[in-house]
Amino acid sequence: MRSRELSGGLHPTVILWMAVGWLGLAVLPWFGIEDGFFNLSWLFEGYPLDSELAPALILNLKGEKLWLAPLGLLLAAPLLLWGRKKSDPLFGKLLVAVGAAGFVWLLFQGFAIGLRGWQFGWLQGLFGELGDRQFGMGYGALLVGLAFLFLFSVGLAARGAVGGDVFVVSTIAFVVAAVGLFIFMPILQMLANALVTEDGSYSVTGFLGKLFSPRLWSLDCLAGGSRCGVAWNSLFLAVLVGVLTTVLGLVFALMVTRTGFRHGKLLRALTVLPIITPPFVIGLAIILLFGLSGAVTQTFSDLFGIQPTRWIYGLPGLLIAQLLAFTPIAFLVLIGVVEGVSPSMEEAAQTLRANRWQTFWTVSLPLMRPGLANAFLLGFIESMADFGNPLVLGGNFDVLSTEIFFAIVGAQNDEAQAAVLAIVLLAFTLFAFYAQRFWLGKKSYTTMSGKGDAGVHPQLPVGLKRAVYGVAGVWVAFTIFVYATIFYGSFVKLWGVDHSLTLAHYVKAFAVGWNEFGIHWKGSAWSSFWTTLQIALISSPLTAAIGLLTAYLLVRQNFAGKNAFEFGTMLSFAIPGTVIGVSYVIAFNVPPIELTGTGIILVLSFIFRNMPVGVRAGVASMSQIDKSLDESSLTLGANSWQTFRKVVLPLLRPAIVAALVYSFVRAMTAISAIIFLVSARYDMSTSYIVGRVENNEYGIAIAYSAVLIGVMLAVVGLMQLLVGRRNIGRRGHELSQSRTNVSQPAFSGGS
């Protein structure tokens, strides 16, 4: 980012971050507020003199918490740059030193104080014994930490890092710090338990014994035995799901864009249905349809005299449920990629006398490689990390995610075993990640160059078109059948016993009344519903923003450690939600980052659990946008932030929608991570539904799920309306208008 050189005073960016730092140090409470991070009641409860609510500067002036005093000295140090230009060698050196020292000291002093006092004797000798326990950091510490981080970034840019671009350097620093604190630190604390024995000591032998146990790697099933190892089960299922969801996602994307299908909006809504449904509800519907006493099973038994079996439990049921749940993810990733393929390239192939099949196979499909690879990777990882479906339908087909769950919360309570299983799962995911990179190679998939493209996508070959319609038709019919069962079940008095219709389940969960204070939400589900909606609406735009910024760095920038950076952003998606939940409890249950029981820990878990979807969707779409667009914008005087906002972002609308939609619905339907993080104050919809299922109140559980589906459909439609569609300027009903819209993409900011 280009910054103005000042003849006197301080650089404006330095002034900004010094002001942010002093706001946190001298104005806002340093420690966390017990009533919640977003609660402002502290303003009227003893602030600013109460020691629990006071800013760090007030505490120091009162002679308390003197270990915070160095932070004030470091925040004042940039005043030494008064009158110096950014090109002055001292400018960058001082800011790097100040930012690094301040950020490191902030973290060090936090982690150096445990619940029972100082962790290091020399600190106790320096500052004396603590009078009370350490509290978690709050508003003030957050702003001071951000100030030091960005002062460090400005210093690095001044020293020439990444071409001296402050925006890019600051974004890299922010993402690295966030990933380090909220992904690496909790996961490393969790995985450190892999070496711990029952008596609390460390043993490499014990670790290797668990890592290579027959339960993990047995191949008895290939020799006629009853079971294979848990690791092989998970790998086989994940590969199947990755391949089949990618194929089905491509089928639906082609049907919407390449067949002249007239009901594309309806199909888009239908394909989104499975991911806005709690996974165990789909599993329950499948059991009630195809289980031993299921409606379909009993019908076939009566008609054909077939003996009912439990075939649905195990691999068949898991495969069906995961295909239902994860195919929409592939569709959301692939729809933007399929739309982004330039029609002019396909028309050029046909001009050279290639038929429709040759054009599709040799031109269109290769240009979709980034989307296909990312769709497979997401399907593979989702299957590996899925917890709800295996819990309901797994039967004797054990997988890693449920084994981790039972290792943690079961009778064995073996965190070391859970950590070993998590390492195996992570290894599989990394293998898939690098196999994807190898398949893509370093080829270019650019199809949008900013020039007017008046082409029209050719129709699919007749045979392929029929196959697409056939596969899509069968899958749509099956999806409708499953959801009709769910909808019908919400009105049934007692599913499987008494099929008389009733509204009692909806009334019990969502009753509304009036009292002297106005409207009264008296239904038992309202509290969890409003909490879930609030958390999801807060986390989804943050997830999309961080994901797309990260994708921009990966595709558009070259910097040292880029591969490690990409690995870090994908790490959270490779770990099961159960491990994420437990690791967050371990890491954030004690100071200095004390978040357990708050709403913000739920927001953070959703942001960093779902961020990889925004990253992969952004990478797939951005790979098709010619870098010359960025270069042209920079040449005309725009900085990198303006280029990202006005040039790149408008062309990423499909990726934005994918990230927003997916992060929102995952926040509304997640169960594996949040089951460990909910509290009495912050209960979530899925934990409420699980409670109803455990109490055999299936009607209320399904009624609640039906309401969630309706609400999420409405919010998803609103998101698509607000974000809009990418206008690539292709020939259609209003060719001239389309060409006008695309003629100035770099400066109009999108339509």
Automatic annotation (TrEMBL):
Record's SUPFAM superfamilies? MetI-like
According to the entry, every stretch annotated as the ABC transmembrane type-1 domain falls at 231-434, 529-719
Q: Does the keyword Zinc feature in the UniProt annotation?
A: no
Q: Which InterPro entries match?
A: MetI-like (IPR000515), MetI-like_sf (IPR035906)
Tell me which UniProt keywords the record has, alphabetically: Cell membrane, Membrane, Transmembrane, Transmembrane helix, Transport
Q: How does it sit in the membrane?
A: Multi-pass membrane protein
Biological process terms from the Gene Ontology for this record are: transmembrane transport
Q: Which GO terms describe its cellular component?
A: plasma membrane
Q: Which residues cross the membrane?
A: 12-33, 66-82, 94-115, 135-154, 166-188, 235-257, 269-291, 311-338, 359-381, 416-435, 467-491, 533-555, 567-587, 655-678, 698-723
Subcellular location per UniProt equals: Cell membrane
Q: What family classification does the UniProt entry report for this protein?
A: Belongs to the binding-protein-dependent transport system permease family.
This chain's protein is named Iron ABC transporter permease
